[in-house]
Amino acid sequence: MNHLVFLVASLLTVASVQAVLDQAKFSPKLLELSKTVHGTCVSKSGTDEASIKKVINGEFTDEPKIKVYMRCILTESGVITDEKGLNVELATQLLPSEVKDEVLANTKTCLAKIKGITNKEDRVFNFFKCFYGLNPNILVV
Known about the structure:
Layout: H1 2-16, H2 28-45, H3 49-56, H4 64-76, E1 80-81, E2 85-86, H5 88-94, H6 100-113, H7 120-134
Antiparallel strand pairs: 1-2
Helix pairs in contact: 1-5, 1-6, 1-7, 2-4, 4-7, 6-7
């Protein structure tokens, strides 16, 4: 379960962390993946850029479309699959080294907080909300 948080945090960090970390710190694979996944997930979820921007700014509105978007990021990136669960190897490759330790620590904290949530979209949403609360500068959506 700790690996799920790690992966989620890694992917989310790519979107909003760009203002905090230099994009040069991200692998070309991560940059390309984030662009592709973002476009796909906006289309699939029906959410809009304004809703995503609200999350980046710490406004976590309990909105079904943004929850679908967040889960989509993880599934479309290949970080999570229904068959195999978390792709730990991919998640590890994607995370910038500057934030790895903090992401791992925050992931453990947030995983413990969402342990009882069974709905997948609610679980991912609450994980992101917790993660943002610990350090908004490393959340990427």
